[in-house]
Amino acid sequence: MQERITIRGEVVPGRRLGRTIGFPTANIELEPEQGGEERVRAGSGVWLARVSLEETGQRYWAVANIGRRPTVETQAGGGRYKAEAWLFDFDGDLYGRRIEVELVRFLRPERKFDSLEELRRAIERDKENALNIIANDEFTL
Q1: Average pLDDT, stretch 58-87?
Q2: Mean pLDDT of the chain
Q3: Which end of the chain lies in a sparser environment, N or C, as judged by fewer CB atoms within 10 Å?
């Protein structure tokens, strides 16, 4: 069995594009002792993830994107590697809080979409796929 990738860090403000399409994400400032970008590259893609809030221990299911965000970054091929997670059933502010994102099941490779609307539809499919995996009791929160 392959070792699960876990990414820890502080939630920092992003460009806030996710909230405009209905999926506000927690953008994680990667910690150097984790191997930084190399650790994130190993998990590149879209994942079903478990997110834990470090100070409270609360856990949430999430869809996490690990990669260069080629649809929204202006650089050729996307920007530098980042980790961001959209938490299911969470409403609140995570800025400045430390979280842990455990990548549980790979959903699809990261890709560039022609518009934010195409990206929104893909995230909807990712959400449905993740909910189906959870509903089939393959993993517990």
Answers
A1: 77
A2: 81
A3: N
